[in-house]
UniProtKB/TrEMBL annotation:
General remark: The active site is a redox-active disulfide bond.
Catalytic reaction annotation: N(6)-[(R)-dihydrolipoyl]-L-lysyl-[protein] + NAD(+) = N(6)-[(R)-lipoyl]-L-lysyl-[protein] + NADH + H(+)
Molecular function GO terms recorded: dihydrolipoyl dehydrogenase (NADH) activity; flavin adenine dinucleotide binding
Positions contributing to FAD binding: K52, G115, T151, G152, S153, D320
Cofactors: FAD
Sequence positions that bind NAD(+): G188, G189, G190, V191, I192, G193, V194, E195, E211, G280
Organism: Paenibacillus naphthalenovorans
Signal peptide stretch: none
Cofactor note: Binds 1 FAD per subunit.
Stated name of the protein: Dihydrolipoyl dehydrogenase
Annotated InterPro entries: Class-I_Pyr_Nuc-Dis_Oxidored, FAD/NAD-bd_sf, FAD/NAD-binding_dom, FAD/NAD-linked_Rdtase_dimer_sf, Lipoamide_DH, Pyr_nuc-diS_OxRdtase, Pyr_nucl-diS_OxRdtase_dimer, Pyr_OxRdtase_I_AS
Similarity annotation: Belongs to the class-I pyridine nucleotide-disulfide oxidoreductase family.
A biological process term (GO) from this entry: 2-oxoglutarate metabolic process
A GO cellular component annotation in the UniProt record: cytoplasm
Length: 474
């Protein structure tokens, strides 16, 4: 058996893992990554990037169908789904190549194979070495000073609704669809379910979303959820919130699925060509050798402190496998924090409420900080504002004036507690609100920033000023 010594071994080459590896290499460490599939992980191959590529094609199609609004006549507009898929694959491949280049540039050794953490052994007196089973069956042992676990997550399944990749799909399967279905039942109205609902609906698929909670995007501000539901319904999406899927009623046939849901004390039968199960993500913590360590797993996630150390201080864990907000930018940030802590740097502590949350539906939603309900529950005396996109010249020019920006501030301290947006390009606009929170700016300071005109960004300035009744447009 061959052994290799490293300063740091990273188990998992998703955004959490590769960000940690690159930062550690930049800081002079000898680093290896073990990846069983493809560098880039969920975000690049099964998540953020491919889904956003499809969403963009769907959005272009929807815009072309409505082009008459802009004085443009376009006849015979149709979807060539094969080309949509090729475009998506091209983007993923380009970024995958870029990532492989970054590994070489930073002299990071990449091992392709399944990694498993081993306990104290002849190679090391403490746990944290990694055995790698390569494709050809050869086993290597990597012996690091520090280990970073970044094994990510996979789609959660719903008991009784096993996915078969044909009639009952999860988000991984959906990205492999070769043709669009005529209709889809989406089970779960969280971020992934809402994005798929919006995309499929824009492609002309008949969509029903079933959500157990009383509203879509249950973690977001209630006003945003309500507006999103209204706008999806306006586009023809059927939304059933507060509805329970009766998994034992599932029937599959050659043409589709049938499934009952309990909604408002009545039972409804739903039929569609496919059912798409989007009920969250489960951390990859099994089968990676944690039982050979004293690393603690709680509620299905690896427990870490605020610098990403597990109960064994030389073993770190980052990204989806530690829970919290399972977002790519959170995973990347945690990876960098772990690498910097290992290298003796002071790590910037962030609170999860400082991380922006985005949904790339049409319209988009984005938020940072507390919802109105959370702010009140935490005892804040609040002042709020809401400015609608229809008051904004640039939104009217774009032809996308649905939605609003809502600001929640503390009336006593003037702190910005939360910013919630629904409307055009808000997933880009939210960064300014996140920066304002990080810099502990007051609403007045953000409002005083001179936003160029006409831009969509003006709305945040106005919404901040509106908190104190000082906006010009409201
Ligand atoms: C459909 C979808 C859309 C999404 N859209 C967004 C979005 O728009 N914005 C956003 O911020 N987030 C989005 N996410 C979430 C985002 O993709 C994840 O939060 C992010 O990828 C987590 O990164 P990670 O590095 O922790 O884990 P992963 O990306 O899951 O990477 C973990 C890696 O570890 C490897 N691995 C696991 N076990 C082993 C082992 N034993 N040996 C070797 N390798 C192993 C896996 O193969 C994988 O490559 C989306 C997710 C999905 C599913």
């Amino acid at each position: 058996m061959t052994t290799h010594a490293f300063d740091i071994v990273v188990l998992g080459g998703g955004i959490g893992g590769y960000s940690a590896a690159i930062r550690a290499a930049q800081l002079g460490k000898n680093v290896a990554i073990v990846e069983r599939d493809k560098l880039g992980g969920t975000c690049l191959h099964r998540g953020c990037i491919p889904s956003k590529a499809l969403l963009r094609s769907a959005e272009v199609y929807a815009a072309m169908k409505e082009s008459e609004r802009f004085g443009i006549e376009a006849d015979g507009v149709r979807v060539d789904f094969g080309k949509v898929i090729s475009r998506k694959n091209g983007i993923v491949e380009q970024l995958h190549n870029g990532l492989q280049y970054l590994m070489k540039k930073n002299k990071i050794t990449v091992y392709s194979g399944i990694g498993r953490i081993i306990g104290p052994s002849i190679f090391s007196p403490r746990s944290g070495s990694v055995s790698v089973e390569q494709e050809d069956g050869e086993i290597l042992t990597l012996v690091p000073e520090k280990l970073i676990i970044a094994t990510g997550s996979r789609p959660r399944s719903l008991p009784g609704l096993d996915t078969d990749g044909v009639r009952v799909l999860n988000s991984d399967d959906a990205l492999r669809l070769e043709k669009l279905p005529a209709s889809a039942v989406i089970i779960g109205g969280g971020v992934i379910g809402v994005e798929w609902a919006s995309m499929l609906s824009d492609f002309g698929v008949q969509v029903t979303v079933v959500e157990y909670a009383p509203r879509l995007l249950p973690g977001e501000d209630e006003e945003v959820s309500r507006e999103l539901e209204r706008l999806l319904k306006k586009r023809g999406v059927t939304v059933r919130t507060g509805a329970k899927v009766l998994a034992d009623t599932l029937q599959k046939s050659d043409s589709g699925v049938q499934l009952a849901v309990e909604h408002k004390e009545a039972r409804h039968m739903l039929e569609a060509e496919i059912a798409l199960v989007c009920v969250g993500r489960q951390a990859n913590v099994e089968g990676i050798g944690l039982e050979n360590t004293d690393v603690k797993v709680e509620g299905g996630y690896i427990r870490v402190n605020d610098v990403m150390q597990t109960a064994e201080l030389h073993i770190y864990a980052v990204g989806d496998c530690v829970g919290g907000l399972q977002l790519a930018h959170a995973a990347g940030h945690e990876g960098i924090a772990a690498a910097e802590h290992i290298c003796g740097h002071t790590v910037h502590h962030y609170a999860s409420h400082q991380i922006a949350r985005c949904v790339y539906s049409r319209p988009e939603t984005a938020s940072v900080g507390l919802t109105e309900r959370q702010a009140i529950e935490r005892g804040h005396q609040i002042k709020t504002s809401k400015v609608h996109f229809k008051a904004l010249g640039k939104a009217l020019v774009y032809g996308e004036s649905d939605g609003f920006v809502k600001v929640i501030a503390d009336s006593a301290t003037n702190d910005i507690l939360g910013v919630h947006m629904i409307g055009p390009h808000v997933t880009d606009l939210i960064s300014e609100a996140a920066l304002a929170q990080l810099l502990e700016a007051t609403p007045w300071e953000v409002g005083q920033t001179i936003h160029p005109h006409p831009t969509l960004s003006e709305i945040l300035g106005d919404a901040m000023l509106a908190v104190d009744g000082k906006a010009i447009v409201v």
